[in-house]
Each structure stands twice: as C-alpha cells, then as structure tokens.
C-alpha cells in the first residue's frame, strides 16, 4: 500500500510528490511552517491528503507552543490554523481538518501537555479514518460500475489515488477495488495539464500495483470515447456543494461534458468530508489560481515566447446534472440527494 503521509520517530514524513516518478523521496517535516510549505508547493497534494497533512501540521504547531496557559495555547494554535488555511483555498478537507483539531483542543480537559497528546492522537485517527473511508468508497463503487459482461476500461483525470489521500484513493480506490474484483481491464489516465498528476502520479500508482494503464493527453479523451474505448469515467473531488456541483482538477468539467455527449457514466468518488453544505451551489466554490510557470514551463523547458499572458485556474466546477452518481463511503447517491447526509 502507498501511504503519502507517515508519522514516525516523532516526525511527519511526506512522499515528495513533485519528484515522482523520477525519484521516490521522503521529506521529514518537524515544524508547522514546513508543513504549510509542503501543502502550498504540492509536495503533498490531493484533497483528503491535504486534510490529513493539515491535521499533523496543527499538532506540529501545538508542539511549538511553550506555555501552560490554556487560553494562550488555544490563541496561538488558532494562529497556526490561519497559517495552514492560507496554503490552498479549494479543497474543503484542509479546513475541516483544521477545525476538527481546534475543536478537539478547545474541548479537551487537562493540561496543555495533555491536550498536545490528544491532538497527536486525533491527527493519527484522521489519517486512519481516511484510509478506511477510501477503502469503503472503493468497494461501494463496485455497486454502480456498468454491469457489462466484459471487463471495464475506466478513464480517470488527475490523481485521486493513494497519493491524494491517506492511502488507497477515492477514484483510484474504486479502480483498485475493480481490479481486485477482476472487473477492470485497463485504466486510461489523462495526463492532466499543467501539473501532469495523471501522467506522473496515477500512472506511477498503477505501475506499482500491476494495473494496466494507458496515459493519454487531455485532448484525446473525446476521441477515445467516440472510438468506444471507455466504459466509465471516475474522478475525485476537492469540494462538493450541497446541490452536487463538484470542484475538481481543471479539465474535469470538459471531461464530464464529453462523457455526457457519448452517454458514458461519469462518477465522482469522494468522502462525505468533501461535501460543503455551507455552499448551495458550485458557483460559490473558490477556485485556486496558481503560478503561471506551471503553464508555460514543463521541467526546464519554456513552452511560450516572451510577451504572452497566462491564466492558471487549478480547478473547475462540474454541474451536478453532468454527474451520474457521487460515490461515498456510505454508497453511491444522485448528486441532488446529498442533503440526506447533512
Ligand atoms: C482524492 S481527490 C484529489 C483531488 O485533488 C487534486 O488536486 P491537486 O492535485 O491540485 O491537489 C485533484 O483535483 C484530485 O481530483
């Protein structure tokens, strides 16, 4: 199993996802500012993984606070929470995890040192819960995959795998469960410009586990669907609004439109913690805009001439009506039926 975040020897170790597949390198994180940097620079990325990383980050911050006064401790901890909130705006898991750690600290009786101990245990619990949730999503996904007699060819976008979670993955979790159940023949992985999480991370995960994978460029997806090469599309999510509108990696919306045009089922796989009931529709979801260099440069190669302008939204919003089902750890639901979980 691939675990992108590990607690070991009193430190957090992150798989440096900016180095995969060229190099498998662990980064040791001892301070909250380094965890904030790791989230912002996408050493660790993926909505659930960001939440777990933030939970450990909150403990690392708590560990740095030198006071036995609970009020002062909580005040400083809230400041650290603000630091982590400013790393990336779209994945709701980040904010949910910070809030859960703050609430735990506020509600825990005892000395500051005892609270710190409880915070570490809470971060570990959040980590373990996410792995179990992803495994449940994976297995629940089997219930809604097309019942085709032949094994399925599933297209996915970006990386919603073990690397994007605490382990096992959401979209790739369904793919892993389908592979284990001998329901899958091949994964088609969109490379996913501009950061290429599909070509680099999803492909790496599949190769690690012997799952046949074909990497395609994002602009090949429609052609593959038209040629009858794809039986289903499964993607992850960063934030889902109450009406089922879903924010996910840029390019997901166009993939959903193309799937609809070819009458191919389009699934979103995500834990309940990704649903933001504070937002009525996807129009209210903040879309992160990232450094233009991600668009004009691949590795050391600059793609464009001087003098051009850029736009780099990291996510887009797929309207609920383009989503066949949202696969959660409690089962697959229609996008318009999320209120049952509120
Ligand atoms: C398991 S959902 C992961 C989700 O996060 C990714 O974004 P990023 O790589 O920028 O963190 C992408 O939207 C995935 O679907």
TrEMBL record:
<feature type="binding site">
    <location>
        <position position="88"/>
    </location>
    <ligand>
        <name>substrate</name>
    </ligand>
</feature>
<dbReference type="InterPro" id="IPR042529">
    <property type="entry name" value="IF_2B-like_C"/>
</dbReference>
<comment type="function">
    <text>Catalyzes the interconversion of methylthioribose-1-phosphate (MTR-1-P) into methylthioribulose-1-phosphate (MTRu-1-P).</text>
</comment>
<dbReference type="InterPro" id="IPR005251">
    <property type="entry name" value="IF-M1Pi"/>
</dbReference>
<feature type="active site" description="Proton donor">
    <location>
        <position position="238"/>
    </location>
</feature>
<feature type="binding site">
    <location>
        <begin position="248"/>
        <end position="249"/>
    </location>
    <ligand>
        <name>substrate</name>
    </ligand>
</feature>
<feature type="binding site">
    <location>
        <position position="197"/>
    </location>
    <ligand>
        <name>substrate</name>
    </ligand>
</feature>
<keyword id="KW-0028">Amino-acid biosynthesis</keyword>
<dbReference type="InterPro" id="IPR027363">
    <property type="entry name" value="M1Pi_N"/>
</dbReference>
<feature type="binding site">
    <location>
        <begin position="45"/>
        <end position="47"/>
    </location>
    <ligand>
        <name>substrate</name>
    </ligand>
</feature>
<dbReference type="InterPro" id="IPR011559">
    <property type="entry name" value="Initiation_fac_2B_a/b/d"/>
</dbReference>
<dbReference type="InterPro" id="IPR000649">
    <property type="entry name" value="IF-2B-related"/>
</dbReference>
<dbReference type="GO" id="GO:0019509">
    <property type="term" value="P:L-methionine salvage from methylthioadenosine"/>
</dbReference>
<dbReference type="Pfam" id="PF01008">
    <property type="entry name" value="IF-2B"/>
</dbReference>
<protein>
    <recommendedName>
        <fullName>Methylthioribose-1-phosphate isomerase</fullName>
        <ecNumber>5.3.1.23</ecNumber>
    </recommendedName>
</protein>
<feature type="site" description="Transition state stabilizer">
    <location>
        <position position="158"/>
    </location>
</feature>
<comment type="pathway">
    <text>Amino-acid biosynthesis; L-methionine biosynthesis via salvage pathway; L-methionine from S-methyl-5-thio-alpha-D-ribose 1-phosphate: step 1/6.</text>
</comment>
<dbReference type="InterPro" id="IPR037171">
    <property type="entry name" value="NagB/RpiA_transferase-like"/>
</dbReference>
<keyword id="KW-0413">Isomerase</keyword>
<dbReference type="GO" id="GO:0046523">
    <property type="term" value="F:S-methyl-5-thioribose-1-phosphate isomerase activity"/>
</dbReference>
<keyword id="KW-0486">Methionine biosynthesis</keyword>
<comment type="similarity">
    <text>Belongs to the EIF-2B alpha/beta/delta subunits family. MtnA subfamily.</text>
</comment>
């Amino acid at each position: 199993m691939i675990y992108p975040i590990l607690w070991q020897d009193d430190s957090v170790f992150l798989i440096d996802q900016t180095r995969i597949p060229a190099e498998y390198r662990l980064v040791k994180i001892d301070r909250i500012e380094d965890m904030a940097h790791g989230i912002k620079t996408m050493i660790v990325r993926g909505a659930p993984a960001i939440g777990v990383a933030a939970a450990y980050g909150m403990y690392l911050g708590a560990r740095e606070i030198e006071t036995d006064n609970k009020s002062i401790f909580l005040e400083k901890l809230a400041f650290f929470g603000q630091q982590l909130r400013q790393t990336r705006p779209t994945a709701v898991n980040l904010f949910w995890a910070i809030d859960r750690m703050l609430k735990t600290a506020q509600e825990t009786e005892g000395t500051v040192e005892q609270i710190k101990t409880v915070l570490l245990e809470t971060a570990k619990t959040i980590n373990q819960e996410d792995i179990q949730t992803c495994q449940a999503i994976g297995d629940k996904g089997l219930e809604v995959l097309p019942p085709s007699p032949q094994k399925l060819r599933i297209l996915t976008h970006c990386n919603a795998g073990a690397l994007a979670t605490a382990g096992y993955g959401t979209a790739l979790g369904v793919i892993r469960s389908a592979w284990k159940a001998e329901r899958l023949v091949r994964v088609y992985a969109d490379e996913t410009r501009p950061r290429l999480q599909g070509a680099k991370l999803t492909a790496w995960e599949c190769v690690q586990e012997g799952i046949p994978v074909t990497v395609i460029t994002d602009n090949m997806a429609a052609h593959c669907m038209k040629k009858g090469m794809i039986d289903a599309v499964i993607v992850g999510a960063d934030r889902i609004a109450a009406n089922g509108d879903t924010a996910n990696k840029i390019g997901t919306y166009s993939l959903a439109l193309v799937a609809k045009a070819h009458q191919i089922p389009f699934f979103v796989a995500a834990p309940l913690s990704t649903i933001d009931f504070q937002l009525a529709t996807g129009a209210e979801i903040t879309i992160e805009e990232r450094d233009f260099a991600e668009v004009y440069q691949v590795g050391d190669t600059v793609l464009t001439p001087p003098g051009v302008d850029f736009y780099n939204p990291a996510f887009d919003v797929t309207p609920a009506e383009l989503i066949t089902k949202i696969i959660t750890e409690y089962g697959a639901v229609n996008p318009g039926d999320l209120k049952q979980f509120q």
